[in-house]
Amino acid sequence: MKTLIIGLVGADKPGLIDSVAQTIYQAEGNWLSSNFAHMAGQFAGFVEVQVPQNAIQSLEEKLAAHPDLQIQINHCDESSQAGRREVAIEVVGNDRKGIVQELSSILNSFDLNIVKFESLCESAPNWGSILFKAKASVEVDEHVDLDELKEALENIANDIVVELIPN
User: Fold this and answer.
1) What is the C-alpha to C-alpha distance for residues 6 and 60, in angstroms, rounded to an integer?
2) What is the CATH number of domain 2-75?
């Protein structure tokens, strides 16, 4: 079995996930995990599958011919993450241009691998300004000082609240 990550993007409409799921099933693939979103009328997502080696070419050809989706397939090499742990990070603060770049730069300076990142902006209920919220899961080496990481993230601005949750 070979692990594949399939990226999907296209105009959103009913049946997109079903058509991809059927194609994977017909290739005797095993759907391991997925993450989908609707953004500005577009459908976007990722699927992790395991497929028998002899079915990969056929699966790739069928997915490439999908009439409604742009599809990218990446072949995965299983790698060891010994000595690493996962930490959840939650950030809330006033929105402003460049905040994601500042967050990602700090995470990079601590040599962290971002496993998952979600963000959104919404109206702050009591102030009427725009509030930025982000949730991230990161892989952290054993030597990383989580207190230093939290302090660095909080130093982005005086209105940022950061919570770190080791797993």
Assistant:
1) 10
2) 3.30.70.260
